[in-house]
Amino acid sequence: MLKTPALLIGLAGVLLVGAGNEVPADFRFVSDPASVPADAVVVDSRNAETCAEGAPAREETEPRCVPIAAVTGPHGRLASFRDIAWFLGTVGLDGSETVLVVGARERDRDAVAGLLHLGGQKTVLVWQRPINALGEGFATVSGRVSEPARRAVFREPMRDDRIVLKNELQRMLAEGGVLLLDGRPAEDFWGERTTGERAGHLPGAQSLPARALRGATPIVAADGVEPVLYGRGAVDGLAYYTAVVAGRSRPAKVYLEGFADWAAAGLPLDAESHPDLAAADVAATAPAPRTQISAAPDRKLLALSASVGALLGAAAAVGTLAVIRRRKA
């Protein structure tokens, strides 16, 4: 079995090569400030405090603060798209705008971009350079943060045909012919590293790590082939979706729940391993630690013992003297 990441990446690349696709106008990476429309609204994926202090914006536009943490719960659980649409309305987005997503961390930036595109945002541009590279055409102003009440109603329909649910993926795998791409690092794919109770990858999946997609020659799919993408969870899956669809200029679907949800449901895995059991075996065979007993006596304890002994001796003597006196009487 081939486990070399480069060979696996090459294999997936061969399967994806085919008829060329044009860069999608509504979802793409940009690196030239001149290619950003004058009316584009900046969406800052950094944390809300940083965005509120200062975010880039074109004249007569106001940047919007949309950190990925605002739409995720414990363990990266993604909010419902109904709640996400409400949140986007609280920062003043109605979905008809052309947005330019910027950020300091690639994964968070790409996750927000993927979220907006799946959520129905009309046009999503992803700035793939540092924020300060936007140039003099952008001023730094206070970003608009979320408020309890909506400032706009997000009206655009979500692109739910791009999202694959768990039961759908089970059916697709049973029918066969699915090109399933795992965006996690190769160590996770082969079960060598995990943060859960089960490791490995979904049945028939191929390893094409998200990191391998950044900055490489675009890969396009053969006609009629739409891969299904997944990461560890929703945030990784959203970022991977952006890297493939916007970065590689080709259509794809995404299983947002990702490996963590599939494994937790007890569904079949390839290259399955159980790191927790291996750790338990190591712990069971490890020798028990020995308790070290000091051979040197504790001087304070010896002194206390001597004092107690003297008191007990004195008490015994007094008791004996009292008995003798009663007998003489």
Automatic annotation (TrEMBL):
The chain crosses the membrane at residues 301-324. Keywords: Membrane, Signal, Transmembrane, Transmembrane helix. InterPro entries: Rhodanese-like_dom, Rhodanese-like_dom_sf. Residues 174-271 form the Rhodanese domain. This is Rhodanese domain-containing protein. The keyword Membrane applies. It holds the Pfam family Rhodanese. It comes from the Bacteria. Residues 1-19 form the signal peptide. SMART domains: RHOD (SM00450). The keyword Lyase does not apply.
